[in-house]
Amino acid sequence: MSQDKAWPETQAILAEIKKAKHILLHCHPSPDPDSVGSVLAMKFALEQLGKKVTAIQGDSEIPKAFMHFPGAKEIVKKNFFEIDVNEFDLFIILDSGKGGVSRIKEVMFPESLKIINIDHHRTNPGCGSINIIDPSYPANCLILFDLFKEWSIKLDSDIASNLFIGTYTDTGGFKYEGVGPKTFSAVADLASHIPSIPLLISKMENSNTPGFISFEAAALGNISVLFDGKLAISSVAYSVIESKKIPASDVSAGAISSFMRSVPDWSMVACAAESQPSVVKLSFRSSDSNKYDVSKLAAELGGGGHKAAAGAVLSMPLEQAIEKVVSTAKIMYNL
Ligand SMILES: [Mn+2]
């Protein structure tokens, strides 16, 4: 578990790729740029190796803000149940933590399908016949960067742009734990292949919708600060989402928790968004992740993630979900 040594599985994975005829890739539910960037970069790398590859979107639509990532338009708008999994002999799972993997397990895959699982979430249960799970990496795209070097993949602007945007986003713009000299040396290499980094980032970030602004206003207008600032929770009830006609794609708990994290007086922050009646999306951020590791809190609630950024979904009414978060956090962190 280190960013400094190669994984023993590196060549075994390449050998499986070389054997494969048709490779399946998919984005995890509610994909972030590390998921989409990983899938697209891997697709281009596999194609460079002469492979036939199909990338599907999986359970969620690819957000519009990511559609300028090179290759994004080639992602097939289908989930596992809308394709014939028998057409594939290799399935490479990327950046899917515990939640993503448990969704994959609902699919019946043929015995003949080899599964490779590459991820940086410590909660990943390791469901592949070959796994690389390395939580020392702040982004899955950086694991791919190292793998591609080992596999002698030639970086081009398509691969580099996707690896960069996943890295940039999953590190919170190079702010989160795990970022270090190795991140920047990878990024320096990637940057030399990207026509315009400012354009790549600004097209993604300046893509707010009126629905998201309504959601943001509702969420930021309803924050409770508990335990002397050790936990601040923003919440939005489904009735509000319905009355303000906020589209489901604009209900982004992660965007709210990321913003709330900017308050130094709050150790842990959470956004609880009741996206459907009695379905509550939870997003957690920690500004002191050694003391308040929110991946543990998320895991206890059936979700997963990283020490400083994690999430879960609770199927219960909003008030009950908030109560559960508060009582679990109180015990877990001695608040
Ligand atoms: Mn990731």
Lay out the secondary structure:
Blueprint: H1 10-19, E1 22-26, H2 33-48, E2 52-56, E3 90-94, H3 98-104, E4 114-119, E5 130-133, H4 140-150, H5 157-170, H6 181-191, H7 197-205, H8 210-220, E6 223-226, E7 231-236, H9 238-243, H10 253-260, E8 268-276, E9 279-286, H11 294-300, E10 304-305, E11 309-314, H12 318-332
Helix pairs in contact: 2-4, 2-5, 4-5, 5-6
The site of manganese (II) ion has 6 residues, from loops.
Explain what you see.
By secondary structure, the chain is of the alpha/beta class. The protein has helices at 10-19, 33-48, 98-104, 140-150, 157-170, 181-191, 197-205, 210-220, 238-243, 253-260, 294-300, 318-332; strands at 22-26, 52-56, 90-94, 114-119, 130-133, 223-226, 231-236, 268-276, 279-286, 304-305, 309-314. It folds into 2 domains: 10-205, inorganic pyrophosphatase (n-terminal core) (Alpha-Beta Complex); 210-332, Diaminopimelate Epimerase, Chain A, domain 1, CATH 3.10.310. It is 37% helix and 18% strand. The strands form 2 sheets. Strands 6-7-8-9-11-10 form a 6-stranded mixed beta sheet, sandwiched between helices. Strands 2-1-3-4-5 form a 5-stranded parallel beta sheet, covered by helices on one side. Strand 10 (304-305) and strand 11 form a beta hairpin. The chain binds manganese (II) ion. Residues 34, 95, 120, 139-140, 170 line the site of manganese (II) ion.
